[in-house]
Amino acid sequence: MSVAQLRRPDQASHLIIRTKGELYAVYEGNRFLRILSRVTTYLAKKHNGRLAKQCTRLLHRVNRVGGAWDLAWSAPSSAVRQALEQLFRTHYGVHIKASVQTTQLVCQPKPASPASTVITVLYQFRVAFDALISLKLRIDHPLDTVRCATRQLRQHQSVLRQGVLYDGTQSRTPVGYYRIQNEGVTPQGILDNPGLPGLLRQAARAGGWQSRDLAVLELLLCSGARVAEVCGMTWASLASADGHIDLRLHTKGQGLVPRKPVVLSSEAKRALLTYLQRERPTYDEHHGGFTSWLGRRQWTPERYLEYLRAQQIDPATVPVFLTHRKTAHNPDAFQKAAWSRLRRPSARGTACGQLLISPHHIRHWVINADLDRIWAAHGQEEFRSVEALRAYVQDMGWRSWRSLQHYDHRGAVTFLMQAWTRALEGKAAPAVTMNGLLDQLQADGTLPRP
Fold first, then answer.
1. pLDDT tens column, 66-86
2. Structural contact between residues 415 and 443, judged by C-beta atoms closer than 8 angstroms
3. CA–CA gap between residue 134 and residue 129 (Å, rounded)
4. Partners of residue 146 on adjacent β-strands
């Protein structure tokens, strides 16, 4: 049975989509829409039925806005883009401004739809026009100049649910975030974004964060650790001598002993000491006894640890970060007390703007910055690169370098480790020698030159 032989519904004049097995039939009232039926069937086979129906309805809507039943697949790109701009302006309350690198969604004073919905609709339009090109119904893509790239989005459901950008893999790797400033929405990438730490610090100060949350933020920025690893720190993670703080964190799969070493930046050290000296004593149940024991001596982390051991208190049972209820800090409390302030619409008028970003973005940013430094320092020799990467994997608490694949956004380091492993296992081509492996990968253009 063909699509055209499916039963036509006798309803009012609106878009109706019927299915018969893998075939889709699209009607506007009683009129059968052959092209849209082909597009829907194609998208359902390539993606899924839900996305296919949404893309089809968008194509039908842009046809109606443009005043022609076949506008989406027969009109020039300029006419299609004009209809798209009118559609976004009237139905979603935004203006589209496409530049060379990014697409800005400039909202009206009262936008009809949130930014995540607009990004989702852009993605669905790209999928729909890709289908028209694949079916040879169009030879050009009217959204080629719109650089809110589809590769940064996993699925439209993820965008609506999370409010962040994702790539096209199953790993749900966050590759960007949204910055909303003066009613303009701009996607920002994680890679090649050296201003992210400064932007987060500025937003945290504008949000009135406590010293505790500022210290957590600085530790995230210098360690690349998970939020739970930083919020769950205990005094067993700290060691101090001669003004130097040695910090180690728990990581998944490493047991109860903190093993992951962290090199504190000057900002992290300053923020941590400020919290420990000024804010934490208010909520510390041991502060009274420690003050009596300390006497006139100066407070230091080393002396606080000495007091805990003198009182036979296990440092692993004493949290570093405390809530106002004198309980251990946790990721949920950090999200509600501090991080949610970055996402408030009232922050749009500030210098930093509203940030639709998750704390886990910081981990990806730090790891990629570390990989770039390793590549810049040892990229000339593959053996030293591999040794440096193995040491980094061990410091991060991973059992294998394969855990790095989820965080390597550029992919160069992952490819090098895969090629190295295959060569060691004898699976590489005989012409590839270990001394020339990196040179050959760079000459082929697979890896960038350092």
1. 888 888 888 887 788 888 888
2. no
3. 9
4. none
Contact by Cβ (8 Å): 150, 124: no
Tokens matching residue 276? 């420990």
Indicate the pTM of the whole model. 0.60
Q: What is the mean pLDDT of residues 159-169?
A: 35
Listed in sequence order, the residues at least 6 apart from 40 whose beta carbon sits closer than 8 Å to its beta carbon are 17, 24, 26, 52, 53, 55, 56
Phi first, then psi, for residue 406 (nearest 5°) are -65, -25
Cα gap 151→103, rounded to integer Å: 14
The per-residue pLDDT for 108 is 54
Query: Could you give the CA distance from residue 80 to residue 90 in angstroms, rounded to a whole number?
Result: 15
Residue type for position 200: L
Q: How many residues does the chain have?
A: 450
Give the residue, 213 or 68, on which the prediction is more confident: 213
Nearest CA among 199, 251, 205 for reference residue 362: 199
Residue 316: strand pairing partners: none
pLDDT at position 256, please?
A: 65
State how far the Cα of 114 lies from the Cα of 53, in Å rounded to an integer: 21
Strands in 23-28's sheet, in edge-to-edge order, are 15-20, 23-28, 31-32
Q: Is the pLDDT of residue 383 over 70?
A: yes
Residue 379 is given by DSSP the state T
Q: Which helix (H) or strand (E) holds 297?
A: none
Which conformational region is residue 252 in: left (phi greater than 0), alpha (psi within -120 to 50 degrees), or beta? beta
For 178, list phi and psi in degrees, rounded to 5.
-105, 140
Question: Helices then strands (H, E): number in the chain?
Answer: 17, 12
* Residue keyed to tokens 């790209």: 126
**What amino acid occupies position 286?**
H
Q: Quick check: helix, strand or coil at residue 138?
A: coil
Q: Which two tokens stand for residue 69?
A: 């039943």
Helix axes 287-294, 301-310, angle to 10 degrees: 100
The pLDDT tens digits for 270-323 are: 999 999 999 999 999 999 999 999 999 999 889 999 999 999 999 999 999 999
